[in-house]
Amino acid sequence: MTPSKRIFDVALAVLLLVPGLPVMAVLWCVIALRDGRPALYTSERMKAPGVPFDLYKFRTMRKGSGEAEVGVSGGDKADRITPLGRTLRRLRLDELPQLFNVLKGDMSFVGPRPPMRQYVEQFPAIYGEVLESRPGITGLATIMHHSHEERLLKHSRSAEETEEIYVRQCVPRKAAIDRLYTARRSLCLDLYILYLTAGKLAPLPGARLNRLRAKAARV
Questions:
Q1: How far is the first Cα of the chain from the last one, in angstroms, to the nearest whole number?
Q2: How many CB atoms lie within 10 A of CB 83?
Q3: 26 and 58 Cβ atoms separated by less than 8 Å
Q4: Is 115 helix (H, G, I), strand (E, B) or coil?
Q5: How far, in Å, are 55, 156, 208 from residue 150 at the CA level?
Q6: What integer pLDDT is reported at residue 199 of this predicted model?
Q7: What pLDDT, in 10s, does the model give residues 191-200?
Q8: What percent of the residues of the chain are helix, what percent strand, and what percent coil, each to the nearest 5?
Q9: What is the enclosing helix (H) or strand (E) of 52?
Q10: Which of 54, 44, 48, 45 is nearest to 131 (CA)?
Q11: What percent of the chain has pLDDT over 70?
Q12: CA distance 91 to 202
């Protein structure tokens, strides 16, 4: 990560935490009261091959067994998502605690989504290239592939089926987009990706945003 990107990340994180901290406090209380504790969910992710960190999110699912917590979320876990959790996911409010990951230097605002250890170890060549960029809260693959990934996974009925779809169809597609980002990364591109991310949640103008909203609506 370049010094300018790190300075941008810290400055934006501090700026967002001013209104964000009261919002997070309210969300913590609401989740704890409605769905029980813990309101925060911590999951191991990788910021580089062999370098793990704890990713922070608001909990959006009912607690399951240790085996049920492994792997990506597909249709097999849909019944564990709480009503409040669905709203938090749709508005991406569950990711607000990742502002602290940014401050700690584990993540950037823009980059590939941080992968689980199992996939980094299963595909070392792929993630060796992908993790040349610091993982991000949002990224080019998030913008271009997230809605498609949700459509692919939402009909899976078992952990095994979810895993097969994710490994066979999602990992290589997202990696290709992440490598494209790494080859062309710049502050201007990061700002554009942040604009597109915000535009999926707010009525910002743009032809590409209209296409992204239409794509997301089909999920």
A1: 34
A2: 10
A3: no
A4: coil
A5: 21, 10, 20
A6: 83
A7: 999 999 888 7
A8: 65, 10, 25
A9: strand 51-58
A10: 48
A11: 92
A12: 10
Question: What is the C-alpha separation between 57 and 69, in angstroms, rounded?
Answer: 14
In sequence order, the 6+-apart residues with CB closer than 8 A to the CB of 189 are 110, 140, 181
**Positive or negative CA dihedral for 20, 22, 26, 28?**
positive
* Contact by Cβ (8 Å): 188, 8: no
Category of 111 on φ-ψ map: left (φ > 0), alpha (ψ -120 to 50) or beta: left
Q: What is the dihedral of CA 38, 59, 27, 192, to 10 degrees?
A: 140
The pair phi, psi for residue 140, each rounded to 5°, is -65, -40
Best CA proximity match to 108, nearest among 3, 212, 202: 3
Residue written as token pair 């991000």:
136
The whole model's pTM is what?
Answer: 0.87
What is the pLDDT, as a whole number, of residue 67?
A: 47
Report, as an integer, the average pLDDT of 92-115: 96
| pLDDT (average), residues 110-121 | 95
Sequence-distant (≥ 6) Cβ neighbours of residue 44 within 8 angstroms = 52, 53, 54, 55, 116, 117
Distance, CA of 191 to CA of 17 (rounded, Å): 19
Question: How far, in Å, CA of 197 to CA of 209, rounded?
Answer: 9
